[in-house]
Amino acid sequence: MPPYTTATDFRADLLARATAAQRRAYARYFPGDDTLAGVRMGDVFTLAKSALDLPVDQIELLLEDRVHEVRAGGCSIMGKSATARRVAVERHAELVELFLRRHDRIDTWDLVDLTAYQVLGSWLLDRPRDVLDSLAQAPDWPRRRTAIVATAAFLRRGQVDDTFRLSGVLVDDPEPYVQKGVGWMLRHAGDVEPERLRAFLEDHAATMPRDVLRAAVEKLPPAERKEWLAR
């Protein structure tokens, strides 16, 4: 596969890999979603590796596409490009600007997870993180999920403060996809600083949504996990 320079070429090669069998398989995970063409995500990611230098205006065309896998391709290109070892600061800045400006097209949990920590979180590693607080207060749940999932980039550096702070803001969020993001990040924060997780649980375990609690304590010793769930 030659390096892609246009959204049109990338889209054509992507959709050529669609199958009816894969479209039926997706129906179990995305019920009622008629935007799925039936392209395996492994194929999406492979093609994205050949498009890391795709111009931002062409990535935006992919985000605007109706087909879910085409948008996933745009998100994967953004994430892989932003975290490439030799990514230029200017390129990363363009991707962050696109990500924040067109978050309206990053509107499902999987698209958020392809971009939140790779594009935004990695950008904020050595920068002010106020944007995450703004996202945590957004009216739409994908932006709120982005706020917490972006902190995965910090956890990889052993930084847990933002994860616990934003989890405190979002722990009672009414949207299940945000709740799952909080539980997921709390679990990983507990890998880094288990005592901080226990302190968070002391404050919130009795009232936090059950799914969040179950995810947060998943890696704790079985007896301790049982005790927290009993609360």
> Could you describe the largest sheet, including whether it forms a barrel?
none
Distance between the termini: 54 Å
Order of helices and strands: HHHHHHHHHHHHHHH
Number of helices: 15
Total DSSP E strands: 0
The rough form would be described as globular
- Rg from C-alpha positions? 19 Å
For the residues shown, what is the average pLDDT? 97
Fraction of residues in H or I helices: 55-70%
How many distinct domains? 2
* Secondary structural class: mainly alpha
Low-confidence stretches: none
Give the strand content: under 5%
InterPro entries: ARM-type_fold, DNA_alkylation
Protein name: DNA alkylation repair protein
Pfam families: DNA_alkylation
Quick take:
InterPro entries: ARM-type_fold (IPR016024), DNA_alkylation (IPR014825). The protein has 231 residues and is an all-alpha fold.
Provide an overview of this structure.
This is DNA alkylation repair protein. InterPro entries: ARM-type_fold, DNA_alkylation. The structure is a single chain. This protein is mainly α. The chain has 2 domains: 1-123, no CATH class; 128-230, ARM repeat domains (Serine Threonine Protein Phosphatase 5, Tetratricopeptide repeat), CATH 1.25.40.290. The protein is built from 15 helices and no strands. The longest helix has 17 residues, at 176-192. It is globular and about 55 Å long.
